[in-house]
Amino acid sequence: MHGLIFFYIQKFADEATSGKTTWLKLRDTVAASDNRYLPNEVYPDEDAIELLQKIADTCGEPLPELIGRFGEFLAPHLIKVASQNIDPSWRTLDLIENTEDIIHTMVRTAKPGAEPPVLESVRHSPNELHLVYSSSRQLCLLAKGITRGLANHYGETILIEETSCMHKGDPFCCLVIQDGSNDTHSANSPLSETVTFDPQSGDSLKPLRANWHSAPPSTSTTPSTVDNFAIKGLIGRGGMGHVYKGFDAKLDRDIAIKILHPSRAQDEVSKKRFLRESKTAASINHPSIVTIYQIGEHDRLPYIAMQLINGPNLSEYRSQQGGLVPIPEAVRIGREISEGLAAAHEKDLVHRDIKPDNILLEEPNQHVRIIDFGLAHEAGDKEGRLTLDNAVIGTPAYMSPERIGTDEVNAKSDLFGLGVILYEMISGKLPFDGKSMVSILAAISRGKPTAIDILVPDIPQDLADLIMQLLSNERDKRPADANEVAKRLRAIEKQ
User: Cα-flanking dihedrals φ and ψ of residue 484, to 5°?
Assistant: First the structure.
């Protein structure tokens, strides 16, 4: 555990015990190598737990409660330490959502042996975030305490529901966190109930609504220029960086510019991954894939200048259509996606994050443009399945079973995501759904979605067969490749 935590344990001990014991007395009873803890070193996890246990004993307080209280104490100090990497417009849910990408990346870069927990988050709305905590330390109580401490710091009211926990035998700890500062939650709110993760459950719950990210955060840090491009404003953000609308005066055209987040740029792995996105996309010349114009660095931050697409993403478009896309149009969209994937796969490149938010529909004809190859990798590259500390990359509802398990990711993993997209466009439902990331992944692993022709009786049988084949949890039972999918969809279009 990072020595900085021990520094704050000392401060917490002084405050919690009100002088009933001294730090030196506590420290000397713990088996530290040199009986002292330096902020820039790494120490055994057991030392921290033992120190907290002794503080709990002194206070006459159960250890679990004290760990939570320490988390609340720790939160404002962590904000101060990471202040340079925190957007001043952020509040509790924003900071939690960005902790893995920004703060934990910074910690791993500064001290590789520190091993902070892995946090995966899904933002369902501006007021709701689902958080999956994974760590060998199993200090989810500390994570919940820090969450409460962040809310106290920002003067917000939050509600926390624990839907699964490693202490109950679940593979992850999953928290549903809601900001109740501006909303009144009734006694019938989902947060008033305790839901335990059950891998055998087949319950169908509300689909994910994670498209709120299209709303840009504060533009207080927006640059005025990037190299020779004028910046008009912030238009979105992702896990790797911010996307700006720019203007190329030489060619008299608007463009999109994606800039790597400063904390990511400090990490060579993230930096290489970001540049890989640009090289991957730039190497593919196809009308269904967004065009890359230029790659460079601005203030030592890598950027990508690319085609600006005027039109909604597929999530937004579905909402405009009332949740359903007419079958002929869904087939056309699916065919264009498959054609773009075929072009990428021919270069042995796998996208790995095929989902509605990465499918733009260019106006006026809603022509498909696949974006964000930030998760792309060469086929057969096992690094492509996992990030640092074996954290799952991607959006849970659209992930293939092999991305969850141990099998190597290949082009057929993208076909699975396409199957989810087709199923959702035509039926208005996700084939694999759940209230938390854990339950969604469990549903995908079971691989038993409701047959789409039950939900949509008038669907052409060959289309229904294709979609269910794409969704097979056995990779060998999916279509041979994206070209085959495109061919079958073209045949359906002609019917």
Answer: -65, -40
